[in-house]
Amino acid sequence: MTEDKAVPVTMKDVQAKADEKKCVAAQLLVFIEEFLAEPMCGRCFPCSFGSYEARIRAKRLTAGTASAEDVERLKRIGGNMLEASMCKKGKDTAAYILEKIATGDLLEHLSGLCASRECVDFDKYIIIPGKCTMCGLCLDVCKDSAIKGEKREAYRTGYLPFEIIQKRCTKCGECVKVCPENAILVISAREMENKDAPVTK
Fold first, then answer.
1. Up-side HSE of residue 72: CA atoms within 13 Å toward CB?
2. How far is 177 from 153, CA to CA, in rounded Å?
3. Closest CA to 20 of 107, 118, 105
4. What is the CATH number of domain 11-111?
5. CB 125 within 8 A of CB 186
6. Ranges of each domain in the chain
7. Rounded to the nearest 10 degrees, what angle do helices 88-102 and 45-63 cross at?
8. What are phi and psi of 164, to 5 degrees?
9. What is the arithmetic mean of pLDDT over 176-186?
């Protein structure tokens, strides 16, 4: 009886996995991670070192913490890999990195915006106190225990207002679906940091 051999992951498989994403930054990160997971042989320094460094920069882009320097580093990494990688796989990865940079779409992530809303770390869910009636529907539906507060009861005052704990929130969106008062907003992480940003629309 012969054992079934695992089918090796090809660069076409890597490309297909990346193409499942709409966001250019997310595509870049998935492509690099899938390449590192199997097709990369690790036999040449420019490719292996460059890919791991590129993953760090791509993660920053999808997390909303990247700077213009990260994009410049990615461009340099891609150029070095394209020139110095010993195999076609490394050169294809380099070409993919440079292709995504050339679109210019990565730059929007530097301002804290992900047009496709795929980079979940960019978004924050917040509850508007003036709209919240403390019905508790969001509290009941949150599987991550990311919402704290007290349900309103008759003849009682001094409630703990409802609030979303950002570190626990996985941005599933279930709270938004059940809120009858539209009191939960999704805003960018940059807006969250900006005290002057409008959050009461």
1. 3
2. 23
3. 118
4. 1.20.1440.230
5. yes
6. 11-111, 120-193
7. 30
8. -100, 125
9. 95
Nearest-10 Cα torsion for 166, 172, 174, 176: 60
Q: Which helix (H) or strand (E) holds 95?
A: helix 88-102
**Run of H or E including 82:** helix 68-84
Looking up tokens 């496709």 gives 116
Q: What tokens does 123 get?
A: 């978004």
Tens digits of per-residue pLDDT, 44-81?
899 999 999 999 999 999 988 889 999 999 999 999 99
Q: In angstroms, rounded to a whole number, what is the distance separating the alpha carbons of residues 137 and 179?
A: 7
What is the residue whose two structure tokens read 């590192």?
A: 36
Are 83 and 147 contacting, i.e. CB atoms less than 8 angstroms apart? no
**pTM listed for this prediction:** 0.68
Of 70, 169, 191, 64, residue with least CA distance to 121:
64
CA-based nearest residue to 74, from 90, 105, 53, 95: 53
Decide yes or no: CATH 3.30.70.20 for domain 120-193: yes
Q: Tell me, what's the pLDDT at 194?
A: 62
The average pLDDT across 130-155 equals 91
